[in-house]
Amino acid sequence: MSDSMSEADFKVILLHETPVMQLPARLSVLEAVAFKETCQRILHNYPLPQKIILDFRQTTFIDSCGIGALVNNYKNATSKDVELVLTNVGTPVIAILKMVGLDQILTVELLPEPTKLTALPPTHPSTHSWIKRGLDIVGAIVGLGITALVFIPIAIAIKLDTPGPILFSQIRKGWMGKEFRIWKFRSMYIGSQDISKGKIRVKPLDENAPDPRVTRVGRFLRKTSLDELPQFVNVLKGEMSLVGTRPPTPDEVDYYDVPEWQRLDVKPGMTGEWQVNGRNQIHDFKDIIDLDLRYQHNWSLMYDIKLIIKTILVVFSKNSGAA
Predict the structure, then answer these.
(1) When comparing pLDDT for 239 and 5, which is higher?
(2) Is 60 exceeded by the pLDDT of residue 101?
(3) d(CA 246, CA 56)
(4) Which terminus of the chain has a smaller tally of CB atoms within 10 A, N or C?
(5) H/E stretch holding 21
């Protein structure tokens, strides 16, 4: 016996007191928002169900907003001890879940006969442009050649300035929210990264004053963007692009609402709109989102080249460098 109920654009039925939600063919920003709101309504009902079943049999496309809504719903359900079960998951969706690691977290039941489609979703034209990828590979090879030339003097300068490793790495979120390790030349004192996430305010009240977490050599590396040269490894591996959006940290993504996941529809870049529009003066989160979405809207290969040229000019200007 089942009772039907209507929530947003989703069909939800109660099967033996278990909500079963039918997901649409596409799970992009508008559908993802409705998906999140529907789950929230179910989780606000009393009594709470033991589990919620998400039927993906019709879904053939999911982008970063769909992943964001799925992550948000999983966290909300888990916080209330409600199990989230994905059933009838086809190849297009499971390919994305495996890429971002959600297949290891969520309970996933595949279609009895999954489709043969294995291509990842075209969330943005730039992610499937072979010319852009070719430009990235050529640029990364040239960049790594430059990195090899300056590596020894930079390494010596870092070691003579402060104790600690030469390179700094950090987990960031890439395309569709897939995690990767980003590399930089170390520009901060050891432990500063942990302090900045803790309870102590270490940045100066005067935003124009030097950041005490940054070393003397680090200030030079940031001003000239030399600290970012190791990221050419990330570009060569395909985790980043020469031009794209700013790569966020997992902690930052945890605070995203569903529409803000759109910025992960493209690969993060070594440079982009934020770099050429005063990255050390941009602190408002909304402004960062707007710049990332503007890049997606304006993207073309010529636009990438234009941003690369602008980046070179910015690096050699007196106001360059990160905060």
Answers:
(1) 239
(2) yes
(3) 31
(4) N
(5) strand 18-22
